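Human: Here is a favour to ask of a fellow structure person. Comparing notes only helps if you start from a blank page. Give me a protein, with the fold worked out from its sequence. Please set it down just below, with no commentary around it:

Assistant:
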Amino acid sequence: MPQGNSHTPPRLHRVVVIVDENSNPFELGCATEVFGLRRPELGRDLYDFALCSPEPRTLMRDGFFTLTGVADLAATDTADTLIVPNRPDTDVPRRPEVLDAVRRAHARGARLVGFCSGAFTMAEAGVLDGRRATAHWQWADTFRARFPAVRLEPDVLFVDDGDILTAAGSAAPSTSGCTWYAATTAWRPPSRSAAASSSPSTATAASASSSSTRSPPPPLPPAPRSARSWNGPGNASARR
């Protein structure tokens, strides 16, 4: 008698994003684009993706909209990769239950990802002590003052320190971090999904196995006198 197909598909890598009050929607969108959307052109599902929050209703940055209908923080206990919340008010302490979720995930070996100010969340949780990390350059001095035990590298796009990834800003760093991480977890080669979401400039990563390198500044258009120009993370300069 013929037997049915008993093949069990492999368990997908589970990516969980914590969304907390005043979280930035841009970085949430980057994570959802890379890890959460189905890619039928690739012929398979890549990730098991979920959003979670400590509250049933989460007011996003500046009260622009409210996020509802997502899982609670129990979802973090099954994450293979946990993306921590980031928010512009870095001086406001994170919720204790969020920090506890980050600590639990780290203790059981989950990979942690922080975009932009997400490094503050991880540092508050104590998982960055003695580790290399980056954050947006405008918060570098504040970060160093609050978390002197962290080896901050504010002049790179993102830092891969093994089980922890931090990205430095809100545009190319976040996207570069997302696409890089997609390439190192569930799918090789990532060319199609990366091409759909990456920025035109070349991202420079500081990896755990190599020395940190500064990202080359992109070409700049002529700027008015005294206008500030963006020369890459950690390299804001004023034209005089």
